[in-house]
Amino acid sequence: MDIVWMGALLALWDVVGQCRRAGSLDSDIVPESVTPNDIPDLLRRAPSIRLIVFNGGGAEAWFRRCFGKRLREEPFVGIRRVRLPSTSPAHAARTPARKLALWRRALREIVAAAPHGSGRGATPLRDSGTDPEWRNRES
Question: What is the DSSP letter of 24?
Fold first, then answer.
């Protein structure tokens, strides 16, 4: 499993585990070639995961495509899903500085909301009702 752990508060894992594509863009992925990472197994083995954050709409779309029919079943029940702007340079709708600011704010809120976070108590994550640039997806 190729997962990066950061202080046990955050894990990073691609939705797509393996695929064929002609170039480096997600739009070059050959859909029939996609093998998703076993996210259900990860969630079963790490039941403290309560939030999945997507690096852009492409990651969220692949997640829905691979697991969408099962999102109302275990182990996905009760897990919040949030889409943040893609960090890819190909996604130029926002400047790199704006993307960085959005990611920093989101990560600060995620860490603050963690039960074993900063000790300041749980802080609710911002959602699309209070911030239009924060795309919240409830399960």
Answer: S
